[in-house]
Amino acid sequence: MQAKELIETRRSIRKFKDTAVTTELIKEVILLASNAPSWKNTQTPGYIAVTDPAKKTEIAENATMTFSHNKDIINGAPALIVLTTEDGICGYEPDGKPTTSKGTHWQSFDAGIAAQTLCLAAHELGLGTVILGIYQEDKVQQILGLPENKKVSALIPIGFPAEAPEKRKRKTVDELLQIV
Ligand SMILES: Cc1cc2nc3c(=O)[nH]c(=O)nc-3n(C[C@H](O)[C@H](O)[C@H](O)COP(=O)(O)O)c2cc1C
User: Which of 46, 67, 79, 115 has its CA 20 to 30 A from that of 173?
Assistant: First the structure.
């Protein structure tokens, strides 16, 4: 797809076919996602593909803050990408001091770019994704055995779409843009 069409036709997908997503296909998505820009090219966002059904169920059942909507999405997806970041690198000097007044802001900024790049890459390859922000970070860290400095920036279920949602309403360019 051309970039314009890819951007315009991506949707959050919350219902997936039972078909498994192969490791090769996940690697293809991550290879494309690795093109995302990052702070000083530090590339702190990382991706954990949870394909083990037991581990995925553990996250769905214990780390979705009783938000059954997200629990059901994760349970219904063949795989879950856990998007991680590392503390104290992105937006920081080698001596640990923040480079700007915005402190930890750039860590999430890079993760956001990585997430959208991944979602667009998946869409190009015929896969659907949805970014989930409602989850309990410490529970996910504990289930996956992540070290303290590795944070969870988003959960992204991934699979072959079993729905084709309409485009959700967007603000107009006039509402979004100020030219001064
Ligand atoms: C940071 C972020 C957090 C989100 N969290 C959730 C979530 O917890 N559950 C969910 O179903 N969708 C979640 N979404 C998806 C949004 O609801 C969705 O992107 C928005 O409604 C626009 O729809 P579209 O992605 O199909 O264009 C999240 C999206 C973003 C960017």
Answer: 115
